[in-house]
Amino acid sequence: MRAVIQRVKAAKVTVLDELVSSIGPGLCVLVGIKASDTAKDVEYL
C-alpha cells in the first residue's frame, strides 16, 4: 500500500474522458491498494 499526498492549485479526476470530481486549491491524495494489503497496512497509513 502506498499513498502520495501533493499540494495542488487545482486537480481533477477523469474516467474514460468523463469528469468524476475536481477541486480548487488543496491536497490531492493518491492511494494504491493491492489484494494482499491488510487492515494493519491501513492503520499504518
In short, what is this structure?
This protein has one helix at 39-44, and strands spanning 2-8, 11-15, 18-23, 26-32. It is mainly β.
Give an overview of the whole structure.
This protein is mainly β. It has one domain. The protein contains 1 helix and 4 strands, in the order ββββα. Strands 1-4 form a two-stranded antiparallel sheet. A two-stranded antiparallel ribbon has the order 2-3. The chain is flat, with a radius of gyration of 13 Å.
What is the topology?
Blueprint: E1 2-8, E2 11-15, E3 18-23, E4 26-32, H1 39-44
Antiparallel strand pairs: 1-4, 2-3
Keywords: Hydrolase
Enzyme class: hydrolase
GO molecular function, one term: D-aminoacyl-tRNA deacylase activity
| C-alpha geometry | flat
Mean pLDDT: 95
Helix content percent band: 10-25%
Number of domains: 1
Which class do the helix and strand fractions yield? mainly beta
Q: List the strand order in the largest sheet.
A: 1-4
Question: Gyration radius, to the nearest Å?
Answer: 13 Å
**Helix run count:** 1
The number of strands is 4
> Element order, helices and strands?
EEEEH
CA-to-CA gap between the ends?
8 Å
Question: What ranges have pLDDT less than 50 throughout 5 or more consecutive residues?
Answer: none
**How large a portion of the residues is in β-strands, by DSSP E?**
over 45%
Query: Could you describe the largest sheet, including whether it forms a barrel?
Result: 2 strands, antiparallel
